[in-house]
Please model this.
Amino acid sequence: MLDSKIQNALNEQVNAEMFSAYLYLAMVAYFNDLGLSGFAVWMTSQAQEEMVHAMKFFNYIVERGGRIELLQIEKPQAEWDSPIAAFQDAYKHEQYITGRINDLVNLAIEIKDHATNQMLQWFVEEQVEEEASADEVVQKLAYVQDAPGGIYMIDKELGARVPLFTMPVRE
Ligand code: FEO
Model:
């Protein structure tokens, strides 16, 4: 049985992961508008990962006999000034999510919920990768500084990311 405090916090995390998917889908739309289909493919995969994260929390709550409460998903930002501005926001957002995961771990330890603490360790590790992959693209974009040739090359590279599952992607 889940403690009500951790149950509420985990339900809020389902919402935060779904919002992450929304935010990255907004970036997919933004990149498609710019004609950067490789960036859009990369962000589609990222959004898919967030849906998987949300379902991991969802399934864990169910498995522990908890009660799911689906909260309203906030409307994400839709426009950015440049590809690097979007990726900087993605990186910042991942840092925010890392902070949330750390808070969840602290709460699990505080109430001596070892099972939840253990489940969260997967996310602790995942967030290292999540931050690193967004930051890597920020660094590359900073390096090419809006030069069309550089953006084109990064677009090609990002377009090679293999999606988790098949979804319609605008080519
Ligand atoms: Fe679910 Fe990108 O953290």
Summary: The pocket of MU-OXO-diiron is lined by residues 17, 20, 50, 53, 94, 97, 130 (CB under 6 Å). The mean pLDDT is 95. The helical segments are 4-33, 37-63, 83-110, 114-144, 148-158. The CA atoms of residues 95 and 129 lie 11 Å apart.
